[in-house]
Write a structure and sequence with these properties.
The structure is a homodimer of 240-residue chains. Chain A has 240 residues and is an alpha+beta fold. Chain A has seven helices and ten strands. In chain A, the strands form three sheets. Chain A has a six-stranded antiparallel β-sheet with strand order 4-5-6-9-8-7. In chain A, α1 packs across α3 and α2 packs across α3. The longest helix of chain A has 14 residues. The two termini of chain A are 37 Å apart. Chains A and B meet through β7, β8 and β10 of A and β7, β8 and β10 of B. Chain A binds a DNA duplex (30 and 30 nucleotides) through α3.
Chain lengths: 240, 240
Amino acid sequence: MGDKKLEKHKYRTIRDYIKKRIQTGKYPIGSYLPSENDFCNRFGITRTTIRKALDELLKEGFIVKEQGKGSKVIERGKSLGLLTVKGISGSIDYEVETIVTEPSRIARWDPIIPFTLTNEEQKSQCVYFQRVRNINGHPVVLENNWYSLNALGLIESDEFVDGSFFKTLSRKHLIEIMGAEQELRSKPASIDVAKKLNILEGAPILHISVRFRTSKPGLNLYGDLYCDTSEYPIRNSYFL
Amino acid sequence: MGDKKLEKHKYRTIRDYIKKRIQTGKYPIGSYLPSENDFCNRFGITRTTIRKALDELLKEGFIVKEQGKGSKVIERGKSLGLLTVKGISGSIDYEVETIVTEPSRIARWDPIIPFTLTNEEQKSQCVYFQRVRNINGHPVVLENNWYSLNALGLIESDEFVDGSFFKTLSRKHLIEIMGAEQELRSKPASIDVAKKLNILEGAPILHISVRFRTSKPGLNLYGDLYCDTSEYPIRNSYFL
DNA sequence: AAATATTACTTGTACGTACAAGTTGGAATG
DNA sequence: CATTCCAACTTGTACGTACAAGTAATATTT
């Protein structure tokens, strides 16, 4: 199992090997990786190299290191600076329900997207789906999502892992979120949005336009979100 | 000049030494640090150690490394995930003007702060100041700021470096922003806010509550911002 | 004079070694 | 039996060496 292309950049090869095993659940969340010396013996490398690989996984948020114990696999994405509804994905305080209101289908790019599409994206059709997030039975976030059909292909919305598109990307396609750009606006709700969020037309809502960059070259995810923040504010935290 | 407390954690000592020289402008922004071998000779260490130190400075956003050239000092805080008005601090597209509307003074904590204060903060008085950010002559952001008097002391708002509180902390007090937590809400403008932002009462504005964590133990900065996003949206980006 | 090659730098990767520091479970002790 | 101690693990720090890869200015060649 060990010998693939170990030419140069050994640490990258090993980093990607470990990453893949984490993504596919062979190193489950909460478990400890084999020790550094284990990896050294297995792959015929030195600790310098495996430590470099683990350091990258640490930076990317796949593991944490505990001196004297080992390297523990963690759930990625919490420490990622993503905007989340207070409670969502923390999911302790509130009951969150995700409803697909428009199943994924092939469509044309919506001009509402305020980011500049790449040439490849403009030439390609896109996949679109719409979701609503409910908290305690009340709709709070209306989500429109797009991505380039050519870059990924159509993923059926009823195949989402735990109802999460990001988890689906990670577990089934080994694609990770690498970053995002966002624009935030406060504006009055349109009739359409007000209807879907069950609020009054003209009530202030938070409009978020976001572009997620992924580890797959050429694949970006575009989002257009409408949030009713009157009960549940949007949260965002980042560190170091 | 080299021998201070080199007992253990040499790389931390050297990291902090370099960091301090960056903060105080002895390694100016845009310049290149001495080469790794230079540092090795100067401090009597090996490249392993200096590289570890530089790696931390890289993670913290003080430098970037360029193979074959060297380590370049960069302006920190851009890659920091902070919410910024589109254009602010990029400051290329728009003319941004910061006006202190309430000079810093000793005050009591405002109950509007939605974060839990530490015991030390509750026992201490606080320093408060208010600012307005203008873009092209139009007020766009109204800012209320607090921090614990005991943790830092009163900094006069007319001593701010470039009008920036963060720059003042870094250059004059060697304190850096380590992270933040934010809550975002869309709501109608109150009379007071509407007046200061020169908009209609009830117009939708973006309300941001933020707690910045700093490198100085016990010091947090609390912000309460009201943004008129009708012309200039708020931006936020983070990577890896 | 222009294109090419060399040289002297820089950072990047990887080898190997040694010991410090933290954790854990079992052996020795009381 | 409870406590202490120790041995065997883990990761953390630091030493030293070697060569690869990228950059830029200089020397050489054309």
